[in-house]
Specification:
With 233 residues, this protein is α/β, with parallel strands linked by helices. It has two domains: 7-29 and 100-232, HAD superfamily/HAD-like (Rossmann fold), CATH 3.40.50.1000; 41-95, no CATH class. It has helices at 7-17, 41-50, 58-62, 66-76, 78-95, 105-115, 127-136, 162-171, 185-194, 205-213, 223-232; strands at 20-23, 30-31, 100-101, 118-126, 145-149, 178-182, 197-201, 218-220. The protein has a six-stranded parallel beta sheet, with helices on both faces. Strands 2-3 form a two-stranded antiparallel ribbon. Helix 2 packs parallel to helix 4. The longest helix is centred in the middle third of the chain and has 18 residues, at 78-95. The protein is globular and about 55 Å long. The two termini are 21 Å apart. Residues 1-6 have low confidence and may be disordered.
């Protein structure tokens, strides 16, 4: 049973039964929009929809969640979904240039390299934005696969298990041999659906309870914790 009171033991159990890490991008790898004003992003995506004469439901008019707006666009049809996704991808790619690296991530990658663990990025963000960030920070060679958004179909994004299964396949392994590290319930749900282990990542007590409630095997509050335990295994 998952325990918030014994994270080291729980984390060790996850690491002992897995040999690959699947890491969410925005959060565990970096804060993608840390250097980018975000107030207008949802508005820009909504404008693409409304200029095509599509009425927005109240929830979509009020949300600041870009993926919810994208999902609504997909309901209206593939052409509009493609337009919204393209705009979002462009915004994410621009933000990659000023994204703030997550402390401890490079230590995790070094620990994985030294211990023979493979690493993949699994994200609902644009694959182009992720590769841009990895290139800027010279991390591309440490990542075995990137399974991320490449098109306008939100149905394959987390909490779907599709991207996790794709990442595992590209690494030449199976999901049950992988641990997914994510900072949202959708990351945990995707891992559970794919039969992968899950490591929640959050810096807040409320976030810890949310991730445990979603079914995370363990929750860490720093990436340094993960690097340390990988080196112990």
């Amino acid at each position: 049973m998952t325990s918030a009171r014994a994270p080291v033991d729980a984390l060790d159990r996850v690491l002992l039964r897995t040999c690959n890490l699947l890491i969410d991008f925005d959060g565990p790898v970096c804060s993608l929009f840390a250097g980018t004003p975000t107030a207008s992003i949802a508005t820009r995506l909504r404008t693409i929809i409304t200029r095509e004469g599509v009425a927005l439901p109240l929830a979509i008019r009020n949300t600041g969640n870009w993926f919810e707006i994208f999902a609504f666009a997909a309901i209206t049809g593939p052409v509009l979904a493609s337009q919204v996704e393209s705009e979002l991808a462009a915004l994410e790619s621009a933000a990659a240039h000023t994204a703030a690296p997550t402390p401890g991530l490079t230590e995790v990658l070094s620990a994985c390299r030294d211990s023979g663990r493979q690493v993949a990025i699994v994200s609902n963000n644009s694959a182009c934005a992720i590769r841009t960030y990895l290139d800027i920070h010279e991390l591309t060679g440490q990542i075995g696969a990137v399974a991320a958004r490449t098109g306008h179909d939100p149905a394959i994004l987390k909490p779907s298990s599709y991207l996790i299964k794709r990442a595992a396949s590209e690494l030449g392994t199976v999901p049950s041999a992988c641990a997914m590290i994510g900072d949202s319930p959708s990351d945990i749900a995707a891992a559970r659906s794919a039969q992968a282990s899950s490591i929640g990542y959050t810096a807040t007590p409320g976030g810890t309870q949310q991730l445990l409630a979603a079914g995370a095997d363990v929750v860490i509050t720093t990436m340094a914790e993960l690097a340390s335990r990988i080196r112990e295994k």
